Records
---
Amino acid sequence: MEWAWIDALREAVSGERARGVKLVTRDLCASHGTHPDFPHLPAAFVVEGAAQLAGLLVGEATGFARNVVLAKVARARFHRLALPGDGLDFAVAIAASSDEGALCRARVTVGDELLAEIELVLDVPRELRDPCNRPVGVVVFGPHNAAIRDDFVRLCEVARAV
Amino acid sequence: MPPPTSDVFDTVRSVLVETLGVEPEAVTPGAVLKDDLGAESIDFLHIVFELEHVFSIKIPREELFPESVLNNPRLRKGGPIPSDLLAELKRTMPYADHAVLDADPRVERLSSLFTVGAVVRYVAGKLPAATS
Amino acid sequence: MSLELLDAIDDVSPERIVARLGLSANAPFLADHFPGLPVLPGVLVLEAFVQAAGWLAHHRRGFARSIVALREARHLRFGRFVSPGDQVTLTAVWTGDRGETLGFDATAEVRGQRVASAKLELAYYDLSARQPELAQVDARTQAHNRERWDRLIARPSPSLPA
């Protein structure tokens, strides 16, 4: 998958929080960075990881029946760079939500070190339209991310069973 | 513990500074969220979430920023606001700033309802009876 | 290979840079984002902002330092979607320095309609400031930055010889 910025899930509690990981490979730094002599993953992709995990969390709360779109990055503060070999741990929680959207807070760590703190506002639009102004259905969740969605649901069940 | 009424303005101001990226000096009681502070649709949602969190209140959909009233199909761009809708706005949003619309009841002026003062009055009204 | 998001620089002055980014239908991330509604991921607008503001930082500081990295993004709001065939105009305006951190306001538009806007703080530094053994990496990175800039800013004539 080309645009996967979370590699695997570690925890999911429906409607509350989730954890996932993204491994920073040398190859990823080369293809997505612009400093070949000092490879690192640009911060924007860490924001995307947080957004994707938050999107799964908010989406699952709707039964994956609604589109969930990143509408605003209220704040994304970076404390260090993501280097090849780093394992990024994402912890995302829903701070507030309604049927219109959600406010999510994420912490991204590498081992014990804080890499980023990110606050996102996700929109859950009633309708999404294409450039020709035709309504589209649920496009954010589909066969392309079925595997990770299934995994999210499984982890939620594990959390409930405890 | 919700803050006493006299601090509501300060807290609302800090929420608006945080959510709208404006300077504290710009957040005056008469400042219109959209026209003066640059608030957009997503910011109104963000503001609701932050107010709920900071004041420990629940803001039901349509109560603070009632979209269905504002998007009423009878409100035509460039036209006047029908007097019955004006009355409904007053009834459903007693906390809002109606002065501008009273003088100039055009659809373009609807945003003037939502001032910093309107938010402060709404929040103060939602807080349990506080010591002043 | 690297992620050069900016297609051209239209204007640069000490306070402001204007650049162009085009979304082509065969961009690799479109297959996943989203099937049935191919649109530019918002975080790539953020990365384009960082790249544009980064060039303005280099322009202001005479390429004196090698690394440009995002320290903080605030109030990053997304407007309309960007679809294949859209040409995005990106503008970054310098808003002041705080030591090694440079501030910028950035906006992106398509045909006069707002796509995104944000406030950015970029760190601008040399690796060797804290790690003297990395002076060579700084030197190579600086040379690479200048080359990339020269390529971006050059305006070879498209006309064929008579």
---
Amino acid sequence: MYKGMYIAATGAIQRSNEMDNVANNLANVNTSGFKRTILSSRFYPALEGIQQAPPSVYPNARTMTSTGKFAIDSTAGAFQTTGNPLDFALSADAFFVVEKNGQQFYTRNGAFVLSRDGFLSTPDGYRVMDRGNQPVVIDNTEGTLSVSSDGNIYLLNVQQKSNTLIAELKVSKLSDIRHAGGSLFTGTETDAVDFEVSQGVLERSNVNPVNELVNMISALRQYEMSHKVIQNFNDLAQRAVTDIGKPGA
Amino acid sequence: MIRSLFTAATGMQAQSLNVDVISNNIANINTTGYKKGRAEFQDLLYQTLRTPGGTSSEGNQFPVGLQVGLGVKPAAIVKHFTQGDFIPTGNSLDIVIEGEGFFQINRPDGTVAYSRAGAFKLDNTGRIVNADGLPLEPAITLPSDTVSITISQDGVVSILQGGSTTPTQVGTIEISRFINPAGLLAVGKNLFLQTDASGDPITGQPGLEGRGTLNQGFLEHSNVNVVEELANLIIAQRAFDTNSKSVQTSDEMLQTTIGLKR
């Protein structure tokens, strides 16, 4: 009975998923290196494989809506100068490689710290890797840290007029990107060729609140529309029961 | 949709923490030796609704997955140990460390705390103490007939006694540096304590092993930058606002659904 009611319900469920997505993007509007996710819907016949129900069999059509596109928008966020020597930012599409307990992840949140043993790591203790897939160790007793745009870390000693190369940051491009939480991503790694590392700079989140608020309003209103449809079917059912079905009418 | 309510709540909590950190920075804008803090955030867990590469019916593969994030979490509040402005005071017991390092302060319980605030005084026994009366470690005591004090860049304290024309050395101010100063524990009153994360102090004479040098007659102001803090405050407030919109919208959606059943 009333197939349309179920079809409208799929619409409402989908809008609610969209709202979840918008809420997560907005919650991370101030998270360094965050990449917003995009969720859009598509129509599909309930029976996969049937591309389109012929118009003549309209009563059997069950076109519902479901998730169409899910993607991670990897465009760069705004860059903020912090002046902290351990803050790094990367040009678009490249990722720092970090590792903990043998598990490798990728991140664009370059707010790193030095551990007590001198490992360059994230606040969660993931160690930043160099081009030889070894953790970057920095001993800054004999100078100050400086990083060139190609990701080489130098120790600059003004008194001895020396500039020693101590590590080369590993930077990779990613395909099949997935969020892993904690500012980390997983994916298939390829070598990055054109990239630029900036020291003392942090990449802000690439969430644009205007976009998200528009998406939020659109999700809300479409959600309400789906509900109107459900309500109309409900009214129909009510009429059928109370008016048409009235005994002795 | 209940998901989005909680997601937005994590966002509001995070931004409220951010405002706390910024307020503390602004409150300490005029505190000698204060180092600004910054709240770092990370995205929270992801709920995978559909795995990429999974098979739909008819043998088709989903080319992309479907992950819904569950909000944001504070990762750390990192102290920035960049140098603050040096203000000349002319006071012979105002000392700054130019470069890395901390003064060692002896706490009443015998532990050593670390501080960048170099506004030292003398107590009634002639010891060099900080504003709270805690002595330097190792303690340096000046004789009662001290006329003038000179502190060299490498920490040697020499004095001129009344009636004498040759300076006398009374001790050396030792300072400590840490491989990871951001790992120090702030305990208030301009003091920091050593932790597991900071590593062991590398203590000794100023100017050696990466330690900075001392300069007499200056004070190090806080390294808080008003413009930066106010910009961050605006961003935090707006981020809080937009997250509250998520809560409102989720609430409206719930209300619509509840309204279905009359």
---
Amino acid sequence: MPVTDVKKDLDALTMTITAEFDASAERVWELWADPRQLERWWGPPSWPATFVEHDLSPGSRSAYYMTGPDGQQSHGWWEIKEVEPPNRLRIEDGFADDGSFNEDMPGPSGATVTITEAGGVTTMSIESTFPSRKDMEQMLEMGMEQGMSEALGQIDALLARTPA
Amino acid sequence: MVVSTAERSDDERLADLQFGALADRTRRDILRRAHEGRLSVSALAREYPISLAAVQKHVAVLERAELVSKHRVGRESIVRVEADALAGARTALDRLASDWQGRIERIDNILDEDEGGS
């Protein structure tokens, strides 16, 4: 596995994941910059992503949707905050009902991507932060599998954290 | 994150309260209904063949266990499901990490194809 480190900060609601690749920083950047390449990895295989708009320049907004196994679509967007090819990218990403911003949806989460190359190995780290506990909880609820109630999810969480 | 002993015993005390709260069928049902939509205590009371006071008592038990919170909206007292903060944060970050693990694996596969092609 190329993942070398995963850190979770429960107080700051931040997750940082670091991976190493046998490729140049430019090549790794391309996977973010080119929508056709981005589509190959952004969504899971069962929910592939289609980017309708995507341009890595500050202030630009990307729009995409992911298509589920039954043809259902889930829309999302990015707002490009900072771009320093091929080393740094900061985005906000969020959900949308139909590609447009919706206040009822959880607030956007932020992601900072750092790409550095040394000795032929490129290290990429992603720092992803939830804006608030409320947004995080909303996101959790959205991600819950259909038919599974929050109450049951909470029981799971309780069991997971009860010392054996 | 290092979880301190003190934090852990607090966690366990809360877990005792939560398991106690969830041991009752009516309270589990209240929790489910509250999750489906924010309900007022009086609306909840109409759902059960028990007194408003009894429902208020059940809600108070859930509240002490930090499973729900009550908010006043006009004259109504609204019951809202409170995802446990710490357990919620852990689940959310775990999910985020596993999303990214999947993405990184797919990126790695694409980069492997580059090598195969060149």
